[in-house]
């Protein structure tokens, strides 16, 4: 075998030409090769092949050993994708479903309320796997009682890396996937299929994950390093010619790569090898992750040539980024194959698209950072993924933490639903400050920019941090002016103010059990956010007498997320009222700066192993304020039964597929009012039933007024919980309300009924 390698030419001086026409934007190609005829440039980049001979040692874990290469091929996701695609190609099942346009309401009708699971944190009976526990009939009976209609399993396929002949551990909670195989630590493919069948029996669905943005350092990456066939095309990786290895850092013994510092990144960009600095460094940590690029050590290729590569990783060094516009389209084939395996072979109904906003990168001229966020290629790639998922009968949702416009534009042709990064930090801020002003601003801004709440997954805690980057305000709208606290401030100032509020109210001296996570947000649980807002500075200060107040505030947040259109999602950490794990119990896990491990405490949903002090994966058991589900479902007024009442109203009136029409001003800063048309998205209905959600984000009683242009004077206002009339809309389109601490009202205004002739 042989390989053709590609190099870059030398920089040449730029020349300016006088012209009365505006100067066109300088492209990377034009900047690097200004004096060379365009049609000669690609040919000038080609280097002659260098064929070398080597002998094979059957014990070697490198490209000299044919058996090792074949073993890697059998482990690789790209190989599995090729097998899966051949099995589905040309089948009539591929043409039975519409796929061009996202359909949020169709997805919500399939699964309206989701349970978000996390594999390494679920305590199971001895000898029972994670997937086996999720497929338990008793658990699904409990879910059905509460009103939960889908389980998002979290990542359960093999993750981490391969070093030599050995598997290495995940570096990011199994989001560094290396295989389509189920990780034996979580169960088997048969158990996943049984879970899908049990869910279906209870009217539910199973939601799996794919990761379009990166893999781990598994077989696919190792084969790419060896320059085997199409595999280098999976990644944003560039071969650095041996004469330029002096630019690269040395890789210490025991490591396979090292992160580039900013100076090396700049030098390699100047030489034309890489596109250089990106718009931001996610998970930035001085000395650990200074840039988004890392260099490998010398790696023997299948053609006998030893190479060094520089590769892109938006996230951690063990998560090489996938290249969606390589001529081989190998990365696309790998991701689509993984998706089809989950949907067609395992029985999932839907997929979460993780890290899907970073699928396009492009060199910028004039020293600006490379274009890496909001790139059109991300939209195109998401269209392909989501279209394929819909084509086989499923739906997808995305976790896209970018601007509201990015969420809107990607959602026009991509995933059916988007995670609600818009309002999640805002409702936490409302609770922390006892003031909904910023939350009202985010809700209104989302509506005005075309992202309706019906297209969003409104969630409480998941495995990630409370994200407070507020990228909509911090980036694209940094200089725009917004009214806030009786003055106009810029988007950048707004983001800075909200972050400062959250940090001061929820961490440090205010609550030593919540921790800042790099530049992204705060590691915490929903219960620990509430505890901090209620003045608990340590975990030890939270007693049994405090549980009722924490539960009341928790239910306020449930009402906010559930009493608006869209998906409502919650986790076991929410259902059980989990507090963070004390820092000392996860000190080794957070040593690299990933403080999120404190919020991922192990939990026993069904009380199947009360003696357990940790999950089977080794996560320490956290403290539960509300108790296991069987106990809660037998206790009137428990958190779980209160959630059921909230969800019953949502389901009865079809609020999940309604249309939001107004976020009016409020009479008290701690109030929030949301007005909805119960029209299932049909804007042609002239006089639909209206629903009004009224919430109190404070621990005090509130008397106030609801006023909205969407209300019709002299109509009766009905409390949906009691079915009693609580007042009438006056001629100023308003009515009065009273709310207990952290209370909420689900109000209905019926359409006018024509008198019978």
How would you characterize the overall build of this protein?
It is built from 22 helices and 30 strands. It has 757 residues and is of the alpha/beta class. It folds into 4 domains: 77-81 and 126-215 and 329-412, Glycosidases (TIM Barrel, Alpha-Beta Barrel); 228-312, no CATH class; 420-648, Alpha-Beta Barrel (TIM Barrel); 660-749, Golgi alpha-mannosidase II (Immunoglobulin-like). The strands form 8 sheets. It has an 8-stranded parallel beta barrel with strand order 1-2-7-13-14-15-16-22, surrounded by 5 helices. A 6-stranded antiparallel beta sheet has the order 23-24-25-30-27-28, covered by helices on one side. The chain starts with 27 loop residues before the first helix and ends in an 8-residue tail after the last strand. The relative contact order is 0.10.
In spatial order, strands of the major sheet run: 1-2-7-13-14-15-16-22
Give the distance, in angstroms, between the N- and C-terminal Cα atoms.
Answer: 88 Å
Counted beta strands: 30
Number of domains: 4
Give the uncertain stretches in residue-range form.
1-24, 32-55
CATH architecture of the largest domain: Alpha-Beta Barrel
Mean pLDDT: 91
What would you give as the CATH superfamily of the largest domain? Glycosidases
- The Cα radius of gyration reads 27 Å
Instruction: Please bin the fraction of helical residues.
Output: 25-40%
Structural class: alpha/beta
CATH class of the largest domain: Alpha Beta
CATH topology of the largest domain: TIM Barrel
Q: So how many helices?
A: 22
Q: What general outline do the C-alpha atoms trace?
A: globular
Strand-residue fraction? 15-25%
- What composes the largest sheet? 8 strands, parallel, barrel
GO molecular function: transferase activity
Protein name: Maltose alpha-D-glucosyltransferase
InterPro entries: GH (IPR017853), Trehalose_synth (IPR012665)
Region (Disordered): 1-39
């Amino acid at each position: 075998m042989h390989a053709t390698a590609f190099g870059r030419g030398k920089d040449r001086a730029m020349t300016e030409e006088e012209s009365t026409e505006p100067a066109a934007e300088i492209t990377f190609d034009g900047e690097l090769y200004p004096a060379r005829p365009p049609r000669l440039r690609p040919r000038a980049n080609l280097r002659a092949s260098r064929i070398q001979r080597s002998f094979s040692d059957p014990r070697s874990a490198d490209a000299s050993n044919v058996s090792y290469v074949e073993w890697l091929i059998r482990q690789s996701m790209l190989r599995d994708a090729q097998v899966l695609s051949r099995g589905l190609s040309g089948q009539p099942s591929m043409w039975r479903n519409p796929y061009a346009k996202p359909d949020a309401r169709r997805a919500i009708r399939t699964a309206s309320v989701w349970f978000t699971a996390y594999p390494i944190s679920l305590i199971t009976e001895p000898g029972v796997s994670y997937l086996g526990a999720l497929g338990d009939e008793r658990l699904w009976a409990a879910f059905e009682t509460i009103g939960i209609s889908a389980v998002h399993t979290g990542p359960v396929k093999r993750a981490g890396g391969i070093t030599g002949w050995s598997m290495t551990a995940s570096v990011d909670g199994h989001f560094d996937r290396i295989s389509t195989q189920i990780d034996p630590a979580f169960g088997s493919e048969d158990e996943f299929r049984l879970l899908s069948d049990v869910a279906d029996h209870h009217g539910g669905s199973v939601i799996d994950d794919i990761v379009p943005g990166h893999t781990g350092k598994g077989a696919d990456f190792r084969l790419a390093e060896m320059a085997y066939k199409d595999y280098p095309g999976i990644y944003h990786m560039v071969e650095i010619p041996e004469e330029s290895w002096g630019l690269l850092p040395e890789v210490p013994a025991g490591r396979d790569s090292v992160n580039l510092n900013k100076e090396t990144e700049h030098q390699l960009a100047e030489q034309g090898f890489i596109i250089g600095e990106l718009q931001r460094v996610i998970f930035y940590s001085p000395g650990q992750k200074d840039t988004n690029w890392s260099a490998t050590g010398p790696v023997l290729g299948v053609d006998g040539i030893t190479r060094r590569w520089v590769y892109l990783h938006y996230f951690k060094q063990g998560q090489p980024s996938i290249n969606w516009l390589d001529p081989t389209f190998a990365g696309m084939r790998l991701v689509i194959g993984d998706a089809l395996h989950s949907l067609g072979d395992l029985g999932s109904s839907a997929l979460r698209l993780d890290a899907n906003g970073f699928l396009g990168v492009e060199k910028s001229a004039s020293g600006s950072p490379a274009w890496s966020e909001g790139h059109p290629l991300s939209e195109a790639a998401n269209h392909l993924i989501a279209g394929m998922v819909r084509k086989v009968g499923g739906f997808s949702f995305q976790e896209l933490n970018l601007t509201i416009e990015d969420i809107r534009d990607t959602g026009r042709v991509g995933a059916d639903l988007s995670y609600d990064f818009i309002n999640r930090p805002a409702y936490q801020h409302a609770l922390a400050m006892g003031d909904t002003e910023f939350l009202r601003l985010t809700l209104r801004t989302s509506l005005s920019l075309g992202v309706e709440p019906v297209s969003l997954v409104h969630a409480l805690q998941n495995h990630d941090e409370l994200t407070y980057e507020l990228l909509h305000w911090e980036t694209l709208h940094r200089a725009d002016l917004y009214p806030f606290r009786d003055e106009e401030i810029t988007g950048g100032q707004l983001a800075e103010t909200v972050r400062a509020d959250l940090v001061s109210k929820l961490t440090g001296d205010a609550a030593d059990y919540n921790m800042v996570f790099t530049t992204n947000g705060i590691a915490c649980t929903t219960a620990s956010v509430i505890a901090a807002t209620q003045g608990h500075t340590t975990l030890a200060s939270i007693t049994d007498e405090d549980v009722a107040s924490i539960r009341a505030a928790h239910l306020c947040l449930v009402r906010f997320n559930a009493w608006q259109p869209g998906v409502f999602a919650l986790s076991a950490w929410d259902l059980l009222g989990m507090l963070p794990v004390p820092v000392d119990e996860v000190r080794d896990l957070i040593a690299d700066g990933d403080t999120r491990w404190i919020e991922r405490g192990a939990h026993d949903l069904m009380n199947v192993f009360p003696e357990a002090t940790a999950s089977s994966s080794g996560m320490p058991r956290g403290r539960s304020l509300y108790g296991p589900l069987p106990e809660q479902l037998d206790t009137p007024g428990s958190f779980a039964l209160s959630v059921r009442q909230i969800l019953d109203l949502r389901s009865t009136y079809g609020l999940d597929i309604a249309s939001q029409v107004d976020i009016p001003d409020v009479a008290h800063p701690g109030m929030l009012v949301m007005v909805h048309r119960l029209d299932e998205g049909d804007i042609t209905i002239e006089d639909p039933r209206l629903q009004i959600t009224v919430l109190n984000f404070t621990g005090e009683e509130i008397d106030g007024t609801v006023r909205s242009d969407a209300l019709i004077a002299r109509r009766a206002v009905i409390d949906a919980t009691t079915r009693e009339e609580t007042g009438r809309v006056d001629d100023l389109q308003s009515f009065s309300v009273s709310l207990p601490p952290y209370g909420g009202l689900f109000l209905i205004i019926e359409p006018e009924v024509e008198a019978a002739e």
